[in-house]
Write a structure and sequence with these properties.
- This protein has a domain of about 40 residues.
- The relative contact order is 0.06.
- The two termini are about 25 Å apart.
- It contains 3 helices and no strands.
- The longest helix has 19 residues.
- By secondary structure, the chain is mainly α.
- It is globular.
- InterPro entries: UPF0352 (IPR009857), YejL_sf (IPR023202).
- Belongs to the UPF0352 family.
- This is UPF0352 protein FEM41_22050.
Length: about 80
């Protein structure tokens, strides 16, 4: 079941577009891009979330990521 965001699609797309531009500018391969994005997520959680909520948020984030992955053969 999709969740409703408090942020507009335009705001999300603008931020996503800028992040993609940076990754493309550095010609980062997929594994490096994922490593950097994972480090960013870890840093955000550790620096912005109360210690007793970090594991809960990380688990929720991982579940949301996992549910958004498509099983199709294309890549």
């Amino acid at each position: 079941m999709p969740q409703t965001s408090r942020y507009s699609d335009e705001r999300v797309e603008a931020l996503l577009s800028e992040l993609v531009e940076v990754i493309e500018k550095h010609r980062a391969p997929t594994d490096l891009s994922l490593m950097v994005l994972g480090n960013m997520v870890t840093n955000l959680i550790n620096s912005s979330v109360a210690p007793n909520q970090r594991r809960i948020l990380a688990r929720s984030f991982a579940e949301a990521l996992n549910s958004s992955i498509h099983e199709d053969k294309a890549h």
